[in-house]
Write a structure and sequence with these properties.
The protein is of the alpha+beta class. The protein contains three helices and three strands; from the N terminus they run βαααββ. Strands 1-3-2 form a three-stranded antiparallel beta sheet. A hairpin with a 5-residue loop joins β2 (62-78) and β3. The longest helix is centred in the middle third of the chain and has 16 residues, at 41-56.
């Protein structure tokens, strides 16, 4: 079993988990067709990761996909009257198990 880890992807864990739940236990051709129909950042990144992992290990199949938290960056947005807003830029790690 081969474990591939893609670190510090600039999407929050909540957004990427939605697509990972849909993609589990499906054939590779159906996964790629599904991701081709969508036009957003998370689907493009997932498609790129899956294609690169399966091209490098052609004889293996996807066993499991899961995502974990990574670090987050606090950005400050200065406003009027000395106030400021804080924005959290979240990152995640995506792990793929090939069998």
């Amino acid at each position: 079993m081969i474990r591939l880890e893609y670190k510090n992807i600039s999407i929050s864990l909540k957004k990427i988990k939605i697509y990972i739940k849909i993609l589990k236990n499906k054939k590779f051709s159906k996964i790629i067709n599904f991701l081709n129909k969508l036009n957003n950042k998370s689907s493009l990144i997932l498609k790129k990761i899956l294609l690169s992992s399966l091209y490098s290990y052609k004889n293996h199949k996807i066993y499991n996909i899961y995502a974990t938290k990574s670090f987050k960056i606090l950005k400050r947005n200065f406003r009027a009257k000395g106030k400021m807003d804080f924005l959290n830029k979240r990152f995640c790690n995506i792990n793929i198990l090939l069998k």
